[in-house]
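Forum: Protein Structure Q&A
Topic: Joint prediction for protein chains with partners

I've read a bunch of threads here and the consensus seems to be that you should model interacting components together rather than docking separate models afterwards. I'd like to see that in practice. Below is the full input, 741 residues plus whatever partners are listed. Could one of the regulars post the assembled result?
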Amino acid sequence: MSLQSKHMLGLQHVSDEDIITILNTANAMKDIIKRKIKKVPTLRGRTVVTLFYENSTRTKTSFDLAGKYLSADTVGLSASSSSVQKGESLIDTARTVEAMGADVVVLRHPAAGSSKMLAENINCSVINAGDGVHEHPTQALLDMFTISEHKKDFKGLKVTIVGDILHSRVARSNIWGLTKLGAEVSVVGPATMLPPKMEKMGVKVYTNMEEALAGADVVNVLRIQLERQKQGLFPSLREYSRLYGINQERLALLKDDAIILHPGPMNRGVEIVSRVADSSQAVIEEQVTNGVAVRMALLYLLTGGEKVEDVN
Amino acid sequence: MKMLIKGGDVVNPEKMNVEQLDIKVESGVITAIGNNLPVEGAQVVEADGKLVCPGLIDMHVHLREPGYEHKETIATGTKAAAQGGFTAVACMPNTNPVADNASIIRHILERSEAEGVVKVYPIAAITKGSKGDELTEMADLKSAGAVALSDDGIPVASAAVMRRAMQYANMLNLPVIPHCEDKDLVGGGVMHEGFQSTVLGLPGIPAAAEEVMVARDIILAETTGCKLHIAHVSTAGSVELVRQAKRRGVNVTCEVTPHHFTLTDEEVTGYNTNTKVNPPLRSSADVLAIKEGLADGTIDVIATDHAPHSEEEKAVEYQYAPFGLVGLETAVGLVFTELVSKGILTAPEAIAKLSLNPARVLGIKAGKLMVGETADITIIDPGAKEVINPAHLAGKSKNTPFNGRELKGLPVMTLVNGKIVMRDRRVTG
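Posted by a regular:
Agreed with the consensus. Here's the joint model:
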């Protein structure tokens, strides 16, 4: 039941079996989170270091809690508080952390490929918590886990990802993971925010929101970064919202039992209106809980955990 | 000191032929070319089965001195050149300080005289400090020994400045060698914009970033009459723009690097920073178009854009690594392996692009094997094979993307002014 891969760098090169193993294990982990006493001794004596070169309260907290619920010692290093400020290289920082006894390093970094570089230079397991606009595998896994709780099968499932696809590591990881398990993935956004030749990743690419949403089972709404407007990628938030915002009229284009995901934090009234965000079809809070479960599953599996029954 | 290079296949890039001949060298000058020349006490170099070529010239090299001696120096860079079969290099002005005044040009020439293993032809900056604003003292630079003007690495953004630079350079008969890149279109790009950049999540550099500047500079050359040589073309569109301009009779030439006719953006998979280069490794369609451009003569010159960077500078995240790779020592092998062996160029055509053509662009007296000419000679063994090992490179920096690649067709002797500076793949000078 253990994973084929020592690291979790992205979903592009992860096997279908590993994805399924992680999702199944996350299911068991979620039971722990639901308990009154949310702690098991499974990873006692193990050390998880979160190395964050970008601000991200929610992902960092999610990893921290995932480690703590499994009794691992978790330590956080952020770029502003460490020797990074003194000009130390990423590899040297990671080697230092490893020398102090880390079993797993969780890396969030603005440069694509940084997790891979780390994995090639240290011996402990590396989890990519987002590298530039390359991949954010744990986000995609938690999205997939959330989908699996609502939909029977990924095969033939119509998933539409909306927004700034060009700058989205979440979109890329979701595309690799979902297509591996047989989902039909579409992406939609303004032409200036669609990366070239994305259809070669096995997705349909749209600029028209209505076409992209028609008959979808799942919509994953990406956060629009407000600074992209200043960079000239779209004219105004008003126009973005008009063309790509999820509202009640657009909700009607989806399958009746469609669900809405958002990786957060939301810009209410821009990419998603509150009526939709707070509707019964939105599963945004479940995603947050599932994020902890998926990260618990990964920490457990990457440190050699085999059978789910052992967790208790 | 007499030398007889015996029985080699002498390459004539002017007549585009190969003929088995002996070459006699005395006091650094070619004194006889013919059949069965008498030895008369000369040192004999057996060249049977080897190509005896006019000394190769790499017209696009970064020697990094002054200012970046941790990457390369005139001594180590010219050693790498000799190892690679080059008898001369032209060095780019993006040093620190920028080669924008006569004293720096003289400094480079003096250092080359003192420590250089091969000949060095300095290229001066187009604008002061390469800032893109004020023209350099081009006449003074020419007097000091600059052979051309370039904005390599720091493109002149203003079309008005470039137009005046071309008008002024044309008056002095100095070629302008633009590095064609619209920095706005490049944005934060670090690799070719295409499917690979989409998958890798690295910011892309669109082909248009190069092509709009190639088009601009061709139009400016057309209206000013300036001799224009476009550095390192990398896209199908650039090749086509040059092809059309040549048909119209524009005074334009261009060059391509070995890495741009060999590698594609797929090499970037794995985030090896030694694949990070500007212009970036492009698509397979671009590589194909470049090979067509080489074959039909649109591309006149093969130059390496030898750009050394230290190990520390390259051992960082891909986005933060400097652009550039070393090329002097792998160029000839790549030309023979990728172009001559595959029938894209004949040996004389390839040698023309490595000797006579760059000499003509730079207006230097070189590129021909004739009686009375200086004995700058490169001998290539078309059958010699070697697997590239960065640790064995003679240059100071080892940032090559060709680690582990086997090359066939290698320089085995380099002669500068009749003196052997490289023999049997080892620098002697």
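DSSP finds twelve helices and nine strands in chain A.
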